[in-house]
Automatic annotation (TrEMBL):
Residues 283-469 form the Carbohydrate kinase FGGY C-terminal domain. PANTHER family: FGGY CARBOHYDRATE KINASE DOMAIN-CONTAINING PROTEIN, RIBULOKINASE. Residues 4-270 form the Carbohydrate kinase FGGY N-terminal domain. Its EC number is 2.7.1.16. It comes from Dactylosporangium cerinum. The keyword ATP-binding applies. Pathway: Carbohydrate degradation; L-arabinose degradation via L-ribulose; D-xylulose 5-phosphate from L-arabinose (bacterial route): step 2/3. SUPFAM superfamilies: Actin-like ATPase domain. It catalyses: L-ribulose + ATP = L-ribulose 5-phosphate + ADP + H(+). The keyword Oxidoreductase does not apply. This is Ribulokinase.
Length: 534
C-alpha cells in the first residue's frame, strides 16, 4: 500500500498543508488557508483597542482553522487511511501564555493584549532584551555567547519579561508559556511536548537547562517563576510526540491514532527538505524575512547568531541560525509606499535592465530592524546617494542589493568565526524572482542551489512525520529519499561580482557607522518618533 504523510506549515499570514508520498517525497496534494485575522498589529480584534507601536499578535483560532480547512482540502482525492503521520512547523518565536490544560489565556482574558500569542515580529520588547543582554554580560552568563552575545527582542525571554512588567496579572495567571510550534502539537495529541529546537534557539536552553532562576530574579522580582512555566522534558526532532486524538481527527479528516511528530521551526525544518543534512550546507529561507540555518561539525562563538544549538537541526551536529528580519517585507513596503500602478514585476524588469552600480545608491536593509549580526530591532533603513535623477527602480534595486549584502555579512561572519559555508541553498517564495536570485549569486560570489519544492517547510515537516511514523530510521535517511534540491542553478557573473565587491565595501562602512555606534542617529530618530506619537 502506498503511504502518505502530511506536513503543515504555519506562516505569518497563512497556513499550508501538503500531502507527500513516503517512498519518494512526491507532493500529491496541497492547500493554503489564509488566517482570518492575519498578523494583528494595529487593533485588538476583541475590543478594537489600538495596539502600541511594534506589536504583532496572532489568534489561536486561526491556527486551528488551518487544520479544519487546509488539511481536508489537501487530502482531496487521497484515501486518508493511507496517511501514517502528520507534522507541523511554525514561525518562531511565536509565544503564548496558557493555562495548565493548554487553554490560551487570550480565551480567558480577551480584552488583555498581553494574553495573546506574540508573533515572531513583535518587536516591542527591545528594551527588555537590552536589559537581559546587559545583565547577562555583567554576570558573565556562559549561555550568552551561544547567541552571538545578544538575545533578540523576538525571543522568549524578552517577550515574557515584557508581559510581567506591563501586565503582571497576565503573567501570574499564565500557568505555562509555550511556543506555538508546541501548542499546535498539544492540540493534535492532547499531550504537552516541547521541542529541542525552539527551546534552544528561542528560549536560551543550553547544556541541559535554561538560565538560572537567580538570573531571572535579578532582572525583575518574580521573574524566577518563568522557569517553572517553561520547564519540562525536551523531545528530539523527528520524534513521536503522540497520537492523533479523535477531536483532531475530526478536524483534519485523518485517521485517529496516526503518528504526530514533535514540533519544529519553519526555517529549521526546511533543511532536510533541501537535503541539507551535512555540515556546511547553509539554507536561506527567503520570504517576508530570511532565516539562514546550517549545521556545523564544531561549536564556535559567532557574533550575532540567533543561536547555536547541539542537535538543533540535524542530530549529531551543531545547528547555527542567523536571519534578516525584513526582506520581502521591505520590497512590499516600497511598492505600497509608491501609491502608484507600478508592480513588483514592472520594477523588477526595470531594475534588471540596469548594470550593477548604475543607480549610484547603497542601502541598509534595516527597515524591520537587524536580526543578524547586530541584533538590534531599533535600527531603521537607510538609502544614500539619491539625486533628483533617482527613479523608483533605482531604489528598488538598491533595496534588493542591500538584502543580498546583509546575507553576505552573515556568511562572512560565520566563516570568519571558523564555521565554513560549503554550499548555499535557497528556499522560500523569493525563488520565483530569478533576477533577485542571480543578483544574490553575484553579490555572494558563490553558486546558489535551490530547493525543488514550493512548499519547503511543509515538505520538511512531512519528512519529520515519516520519521515519527517509523517509515525511516532518522531524518538523514528520510531527507535522502524525500528531499528535493537542484544544485548550482545560479552561478556568479564575474564582472558583476567585481562591481558588487566595491559596493559591498561601502555597505560595510555604513553597517559599522550606523549599526555599531559611530552615529546613533537611527536610535535617536526612533526615540523622537515614539515621543511625539504619545
Amino acid at each position: 500500500m502506498t503511504k502518505y504523510v502530511v506536513g503543515v506549515d504555519y506562516g505569518t499570514l497563512s497556513g499550508r498543508a501538503v500531502v507527500v508520498r513516503v517512498d519518494d517525497g512526491t507532493e500529491v496534494g496541497t492547500a493554503v488557508h489564509e488566517y482570518r485575522h492575519g498578523a494583528v498589529e494595529r487593533t485588538l480584534p476583541a475590543t478594537g483597542e489600538a495596539l502600541p507601536p511594534h506589536w504583532a499578535l496572532q489568534m489561536t483560532t486561526d491556527w486551528v482553522d488551518v487544520l479544519r480547512h487546509a488539511v481536508p482540502k489537501a487530502l482531496e482525492g487521497i484515501d486518508p487511511t493511507q496517511v501514517v503521520g502528520i507534522a507541523t512547523d511554525f514561525t518562531a518565536c511565536t509565544f503564548l501564555p496558557v493555562l495548565a490544560d493548554g487553554t490560551p489565556l487570550g480565551d480567558v482574558l480577551p480584552d488583555r493584549p498581553h494574553a495573546y500569542p506574540k508573533l515572531w515580529k513583535h518587536h516591542a520588547a527591545q528594551r527588555q532584551a537590552d536589559r537581559i543582554n546587559r545583565l547577562a554580560g555583567e554576570r558573565g552568563e556562559g549561555w550568552l555567547s551561544r547567541y552571538g552575545g545578544k538575545l533578540s527582542s523576538e525571543w522568549q525571554l524578552a517577550k515574557a519579561l515584557q508581559v510581567l512588567e506591563e501586565d503582571p496579572d497576565v503573567f501570574a495567571r499564565a500557568e505555562r508559556f509555550i511556543e506555538a510550534a508546541d501548542w499546535i502539537v498539544w492540540q493534535l495529541t492532547g499531550v504537552e511536548t516541547r521541542n529541542a529546537c525552539t527551546a534552544g534557539y528561542k528560549g536560551a536552553y543550553q547544556d541541559g537547562g535554561y538560565p538560572s532562576r537567580e538570573f531571572f530574579e535579578a532582572l525583575h522580582p518574580g521573574f524566577g517563576t518563568f522557569v517553572d512555566k517553561v520547564d519540562g522534558p525536551l523531545s528530539p526532532l523527528g520524534g513521536l510526540a503522540g497520537r492523533l486524538t479523535a477531536e483532531a481527527a475530526a478536524w483534519t479528516g485523518l485517521p485517529e491514532g496516526i503518528a504526530v511528530a514533535v514540533g519544529n521551526v519553519d526555517a529549521h525544518v526546511t533543511a532536510p527538505a533541501a537535503q541539507a543534512v551535512e555540515a556546511g550546507q547553509l539554507v536561506a529561507i527567503m520570504g517576508t524575512s530570511t532565516c539562514h540555518v546550517m549545521s556545523g561539525a564544531t561549536l564556535a562563538d559567532v557574533p550575532g547568531m540567533c543561536g547555536v544549538v547541539a542537535d538543533g537541526i540535524i542530530p549529531g551536529l551543531y545547528g547555527y541560525e542567523a536571519g534578516q528580519s525584513g526582506v520581502g517585507d521591505i520590497f512590499g513596503w516600497f511598492v505600497d509606499s509608491l501609491e502608484s500602478s507600478l508592480t513588483h514585476d514592472e520594477l523588477t524588469a526595470r531594475a534588471a535592465a540596469q548594470r550593477p552600480g548604475q543607480h549610484g545608491l547603497v542601502a541598509l536593509d534595516w527597515h524591520n530592524g537587524n536580526r543578524s549580526v547586530l541584533v538590534d530591532h531599533h535600527l531603521s533603513g537607510v538609502i544614500v546617494g539619491q539625486t533628483l535623477a533617482t527613479k523608483p527602480e533605482d531604489q528598488y534595486r538598491a533595496l534588493i542589493e542591500a538584502t543580498a549584502y546583509g546575507t553576505r555579512t552573515i556568511v562572512e561572519t560565520l566563516e570568519t568565526a571558523g564555521v565554513p559555508v560549503t554550499e548555499f541553498i535557497a528556499a522560500g517564495g523569493l525563488l520565483k524572482n530569478t533576477f533577485l536570485m542571480q543578483l544574490y549569486s553575484d553579490v555572494l560570489r558563490r553558486p546558489i542551489s535551490v530547493i525543488d519544492s514550493e512548499q519547503g517547510p511543509a515538505l520538511g515537516s512531512a519528512i519529520h512525520a515519516a520519521v515519527a511514523a517509523g517509515e525511516y530510521p532518522d531524518v538523514r535517511a528520510a531527507a535522502a529519499a524525500m528531499g528535493k534540491v537542484k544544485r548550482a542553478v545560479y552561478t556568479p557573473d564575474e564582472a558583476a561580482a567585481d562591481v558588487y565587491d566595491r559596493l559591498y565595501a561601502e555597505y560595510q562602512q555604513l553597517h559599522e557607522y550606523f549599526g555599531k555606534g559611530g552615529n546613533d542617529v537611527l536610535h535617536r530618530l526612533r526615540d523622537l518618533r515614539e515621543e511625539v506619537a504619545q
